[in-house]
Structure formats: structure tokens, C-alpha cells
Design a protein that fits this description.
The complex is a heterodimer of chains A (293) and B (387). Chain A is mainly α and 293 residues long. Chain A has eleven helices and four strands; from the N terminus they run ααααβββααααβααα. In chain A, helix 9 packs parallel to helix 11 and helix 10 crosses helix 11. Chain B is elongated. In chain B, the strands form three sheets. A seven-stranded mixed β-sheet of chain B has the order 7-6-8-9-10-14-15, sandwiched between helices. A five-stranded parallel β-sheet of chain B has the order 2-1-3-4-5, with helices on both faces. With 387 residues, chain B is α/β, with parallel strands linked by helices. Classes of the chains: A mainly alpha (293), B alpha/beta (387).
């Protein structure tokens, strides 16, 4: 029983990381129907900015996270303007392939500039305390990452549902041309979406750096893919869905490692993706809306 | 017409080169023994080659100071292979042309494999100081390559040494293996560990794995915590092992943990943390802290000559030269064929990196050292002789 409880705790903190990345993924998809495969790599850039902020400028972790979020918001806007905007009228597959190109570009530029060696996040940046409840070990970083994920989700949900920008986003998502006729600046709205999504990725990157201590230029690939699975599982484009999908995936992986074979973990995660696409492609929270004819 | 003239020219040049090289060999044949040193003196792994060259030259200097071998002085020809396998091959061809009786080096497994064909065709023995990949001395059919030898143990052998240490020195009766399942290195060490540990009477409670790039091991570790083993064997590289050890200690696992030389990195201490690393051990070829008088004598001589501490590459290259000298003595001949036969029959040769006997696959059966992390420092725990 204790072991199961511990595994659930492990699963929740792993799931919080997936959820955090999945939020940005699902938001960009929700607005412009683009699966931004570069999302995991924006997260990596965020982790590096956080790292340099802490190690070179000596800032604390909160300031580092704000730096990373601002820088990545800018990066997100630039990526959108340079890579995706010229393709807005092109097929969706063209945009998708471009996203993969952007992803590789970010990875290998970082390798070129900063070497492929891993870097160690300064331990002093976030003092870790372990708490022990009747044999159940939980650390303050587990709690920190869990609460951050939930708070960010609530803020995001609020922006999308209750602000003017959010209203514009939803309008653009529904019908771009009609939105233009209603006087909405579509370019600015899409830029805003990328800025917000990339800032979330940066926050996730810094948290992962703190959580696992090390960062490297290819750290975004696997968590990025897992977050994609989480977003699809919850229903891509739906903000609470990303959250729930992330937690389910985290707990599932943990249980597979804990009670099955640790080497089947990734196979199960991607098996889930295939299953959900076969059975309910809109995800857990998705409504079955028929294609408009 | 033009082609044939070119061919004639090439043949002629080769012929002339052969005469020149032959002359050189003959001229030196009387008083000195020519030994080739094919090392990575520049390029990606220049530090391996430079230190190894220094170790080998120290050995040659010492041998010559004591009157050489069979009354002849050793004359070393050192060449840089630029850390590239194809360059290593042409260096070998050049050295063979100069009439060497044996070659020391290259250092990395890939570069040694670059030379294999040249050495086999010309029937000149090669002694690799530090090539640890299993397939360096055997071909794809598993047959031993006649002229390729090494003085380092193969990677998986570290599993054998650690199993012996865990069972006998730490008194572990049960163990869990948590291996890097994405590398031959991790799988090989795990296999040898399992074999030796069970042969000694120990019990493997579970065999788990992770893959390169993993950063979250808590699910598997929680499972291992429930099994409560006496020892946890983690053959892998420091990028994954360091966070793994940290997470294990955070989950309250206090059992001793061990691994191979993939743990040997300053990053281990920074990532895992000093306190978390206490009670963890890894196997290595050699330690500069070894109090064995032979080691200390070597360390002192090396420091006097080069003003730096000898690393494992220097020690292994030193042993490679000493082993060659021993083989020449045993053979009582400087003929490469006789040297090869003598190398195959080496028994209980006392090297700096331990006593070694060459087995039928040309791998030494030899001792290793156990390094312990103590308050953030690497401390030599003991030397393990294989039994």
C-alpha cells in the first residue's frame, strides 16, 4: 500500500512536468491548428536561459524563470513570424514539417554554440527539502512543480475565457476570415498565442532544470513527445485536457515501471497515443463534433 | 598505355621503398629492437594518446637504462594517428614498413580496429593498452585475432570484479541490477555481474533497466526499495547514474551501490551530491592512490620525468611496453612470430595495473581497483584480484 502511494506521488510529479509542457502545446494547436513540434526545444532554450541567469548573473530561481519566459516569448514570436506565417495559407502538413525543421534548428544551433555536453543546474538555486510522511517521501520541488502546473493552467484558462485577448484567440480559432471582418487583428492574436505558449514552455524548462539538475541541448525531445501524447490524450486544444492527460500519462508510466517492466515504459506511453487515436481521436475531454460540410 | 606506365611507376616506387625500409630494418636489427608507437597525439582524444606515449616512453627509458632486452636497446618510433581510424591504419602501414617487431597502441577501440588488417596481413603483434571493446581481439565469427593483444580488461569484466567485491568485501547476499539497457557497455557489465554473483551463491532479486537520456528513475527505485536488496548494481554512464543515485537516496534507499568506469566523472559529485554518493563504489583499471610498491615506484618515476600524475592510459601503456619486453625475453628472439607466441603464453606478469595472464582470446585476466566515493572524493578502497 505504501509502495503504491509512493508510486502515485512519483507519477503525479512526473505528470506535472508533462502537463506543464502539454499546456503550451495544446494552446497553440487550439488557436491555429498547428502541432508545434518545436515546443519541446523552446522549453530547452528556456532551461538554458534560466541556467545562465542563475549561474552567470547569480539571480534567484524566480527571476531566472521570468527572464526565461520573456526571452522565450520573444523567441516564439520570431519563430512564428519567420517560419509559420508565410505558410499560413499552405497545407497543414507543410506547416507541420516546418515545425520539425524549426525543432532541429534549435537543437543543433544550441549544440553548435554551447557544445552537446550536459550542464549542471546550480544546486543552490533551489534548496531542496525532503519531507517524510510515514515512509512516503515527498520533496518541496515535487510540491512546487505540482502547484505551478495547476496555477499556470488556471491563469491560462482565465486568459482564454475571460479576457479580450482570449476572446480574440477563440474567434481566430473558430474562423480566421470572420474574425478579420469583426475587426480582430489576426496577426497580433496569433503572435500573442505563440508568446504565451512559449513562455509556458520556458517556465517548464527552468522547472525541469531545477528538478533533474542537468540540462542538455536534446533534453526537449522526449518530454516534448510525451507532452504531445498527454495533450492528445486529454483532447488536443482543450486546456484542462492537457492537465489531466499529463497526470494520467505520468501515473501510467510510473505504474508500468513500478509493477511491470521498466523498459516497456515508453512503449506503453506511445501505445496510449495509438490507442486513443484509434478509439477516440478527440481525446478524453473532446466533443465528437462532426466535420462541417 | 598511360595507365600501364603509371602502374609500373607505382610498382617501382613500392619496390624502392621496400629496399629502403628493408635496409633500415636490417641496419637496426643488430643492436636495437624497433617498436612502433601509434598514438592519438592530436585530435579528439589527444589527451589519451599523449599520456599513453609518455607512459610508454618512460618504460622504454627504464628498460634501456637496465641494459635493454636480450642485450639490445629498444628504439621507439612514435607516430600521431590524429585520433582517426584511417590515419591509424596508414601509420601502422608506415611503421610496419620501417621494420618494427611490434606496435603499441592505438588507444581507442575504433582506432585499434583500424590497424587490425595491417597487423594481421604483415603478422606483426599489436598490443592495445586501453581498447576495452569486446570485439577488438576477436573477429565477427568469435575467432581470436592472432596478432592483436591488450593489457586492459574488457568492459564486461568489470561486472565480475564488482560482483566479487560486493559478495566478499561488502558481504552482500542479495542484489538488484539496474542497467543501462541502451548500451552494450551496460548490458555486458550486468551479464558478467549476474554470472559471478550467482556463482558465488548470491541472489539477484530483480533486473531492471533504463535507457540513455532518462532522468526520472523514481518508479523503478521505489520498486527496488520494496525488495530491500543488500547491494544495487548500476552499470551505466554518469549522465544517467548521477541523478539516479540522487533519487535513490532521496527515496530513502541506503544500500551500497556500485558501477563501472562509466561513473568516473567530476559531474557525478556535482549532480548527485556529496552525501548521497557515500557508500557507492565503482571499478577501474588503476588508481594513482594504490599503495602497492610497484605502483608507487611508477608514479614517482613518472612524476619526476613529466611533472604530472600518471592516469590510467599512462599506466596501461607502461604495462604494454613492459609486457612486450617480457615476451621478447620469454621468446629469446626478436622475430615478430616468436614474440606473438610468447605473448599468448604470458602467465602472472606483474604490471603496474596488476598481475595478468593472457587468456585464449588475448584478453588479460587481471586485477582491478575499487574506487569509493567518500564525502565527495574518489578514494581507492581496495584492489580486487580475480579468483
Amino acid at each position: 500500500m505504501l509502495e503504491l502511494m509512493q508510486q502515485i506521488v512519483n507519477g503525479l510529479s512526473l505528470g506535472a512536468i508533462y502537463a506543464l509542457i502539454a499546456l503550451g502545446y495544446t494552446m497553440i494547436y487550439g488557436i491555429i491548428k498547428l502541432i508545434n513540434f518545436a515546443h519541446g526545444d523552446v522549453m530547452m532554450v528556456g532551461a538554458y536561459i534560466g541556467f545562465f541567469s542563475v549561474s552567470l548573473l547569480g539571480t534567484n530561481i524566480m527571476v531566472a524563470m521570468i527572464f526565461a519566459m520573456i526571452a522565450c516569448a520573444l523567441l516564439g514570436v520570431i519563430i512564428e513570424k519567420v517560419a509559420y506565417k508565410p505558410l499560413r495559407r499552405a497545407t497543414r502538413i507543410a506547416a507541420l514539417i516546418t515545425a520539425i525543421g524549426v525543432s532541429l534548428f534549435l537543437e543543433y544551433t544550441t549544440i553548435f554554440l554551447l557544445t552537446p555536453q550536459q550542464r549542471i543546474f546550480p544546486q543552490g538555486a533551489f534548496p531542496v527539502h525532503d519531507y517524510n510522511f510515514l515512509g512516503l517521501s515527498v520533496s518541496n520541488k515535487d510540491i512546487f512543480i505540482f502547484i505551478s502546473a495547476i496555477v499556470l493552467m488556471i491563469i491560462l484558462q482565465f486568459i482564454v475565457k475571460n479576457t479580450k485577448t482570449g476572446k480574440a484567440m477563440r474567434a481566430v480559432s473558430e474562423d480566421k476570415d470572420a474574425a478579420v471582418l469583426m475587426g480582430i487583428n489576426v496577426d497580433n492574436t496569433i503572435s500573442m498565442t505563440f508568446a504565451l505558449g512559449s513562455a509556458l514552455a520556458a517556465a517548464a524548462g527552468v522547472m525541469i532544470g531545477v528538478y533533474y539538475n542537468t540540462i542538455n541541448p536534446l533534453m526537449g525531445i522526449l518530454p516534448g513527445l510525451k507532452a504531445f501524447v498527454a495533450a492528445v490524450l486529454g483532447g488536443i486544444g482543450i486546456i484542462p485536457g492537457a492537465m489531466v492527460g499529463g497526470f494520467i500519462l505520468g501515473i501510467l508510466e510510473t505504474l508500468v515501471s513500478g509493477y511491470g517492466n521498466s523498459l516497456y515504459r515508453d512503449a506503453v506511453a506511445f501505445g496510449v497515443l495509438i490507442l486513443i487515436l484509434l478509439i477516440k481521436p478527440t481525446g478524453i475531454f473532446g466533443k465528437n463534433t462532426g466535420e462541417k460540410v | 598505355m598511360r595507365i600501364s606506365r603509371k602502374v609500373v611507376l607505382v610498382v617501382l616506387m613500392l619496390f624502392m621503398f621496400g629496399i629502403v625500409a628493408g635496409c633500415g630494418g636490417k641496419a637496426g636489427g643488430g643492436e636495437e629492437i624497433l617498436v612502433g608507437i601509434n598514438a592519438e597525439l592530436s585530435g579528439a582524444v589527444a589527451s589519451y594518446g599523449t599520456n599513453a606515449r609518455d607512459g610508454a616512453m618512460l618504460a622504454i627509458e627504464q628498460i634501456n637504462a637496465e641494459g635493454g632486452v636480450l642485450g639490445k636497446k629498444i628504439n621507439a618510433i612514435e607516430r600521431d594517428n590524429k585520433s582517426q581510424a584511417d590515419e591509424a591504419m596508414s601509420v601502422s602501414a608506415d611503421l610496419v614498413g620501417k621494420g618494427i617487431v611490434a606496435q603499441i597502441g592505438p588507444l581507442t577501440s575504433g582506432n585499434v580496429q583500424g590497424c587490425t588488417l595491417v597487423m594481421m596481413d604483415n603478422k606483426i603483434p599489436l598490443i592495445a593498452p586501453a581498447a576495452t571493446a569486446v570485439n577488438v581481439t576477436v573477429n565477427e565469427k568469435g575467432e581470436t585475432l592472432d596478432y592483436i593483444f591488450r593489457v586492459c580488461f574488457i568492459d564486461p569484466f568489470q561486472g565480475t570484479l564488482m560482483a566479487q567485491f560486493a559478495y566478499e568485501n561488502l558481504g552482500a547476499k542479495t542484489a538488484v541490477i539496474l542497467k543501462d539497457a541502451s548500451s552494450d557497455y551496460g548490458k555486458g557489465l550486468a551479464e558478467y555481474f549476474k554470472k559471478t554473483f550467482t556463482e558465488k551463491g548470491g541472489k539477484i532479486l530483480a533486473e531492471e533497466g533504463f535507457v540513455k537520456g532518462d532522468r526520472d528513475f523514481r518508479a523503478t527505485l521505489t520498486k527496488i526499495r520494496g525488495l530491500n536488496p543488500d547491494f544495487i548494481y548500476v552499470p551505466g554512464y554518469y549522465e544517467e547514474v548521477a541523478p539516479l543515485i540522487k533519487q535513490a537516496r532521496e527515496l530513502g534507499i541506503t544500500a551500497p551501490m556500485g558501477g563501472g568506469d562509466g561513473w568516473d566523472s567530476p559531474d557525478m559529485i556535482e549532480v548527485a551530491g556529496k552525501a548521497n554518493l557515500n557508500n557507492t563504489y565503482f571499478t577501474n583499471h588503476y588508481s594513482v592512490q594504490d599503495q602497492n610498491p610497484k605502483v608507487q615506484k611508477f608514479v614517482k618515476a613518472y612524476k619526476e620525468k613529466y611533472n604530472k600524475e600518471p592516469d590510467a592510459f599512462a599506466a596501461l601503456a607502461y604495462d604494454a611496453v613492459q609486457l612486450l619486453a617480457q615476451a621478447i625475453k620469454d621468446a629469446n628472439s626478436t622475430n615478430p612470430e616468436d614474440i606473438k607466441n610468447a605473448l599468448e603464453n604470458i602467465k602472472d606478469f606483474e604490471g603496474v595495473t596488476g598481475r595478468m595472464s593472457i587468456d585464449e582470446q588475448h584478453n588479460p585476466v587481471k586485477a582491478g581497483v575499487i574506487i569509493e566515493f567518500k564525502d565527495g572524493k574518489q578514494v581507492m578502497n581496495t584492489r580486487i584480484e580475480p579468483k
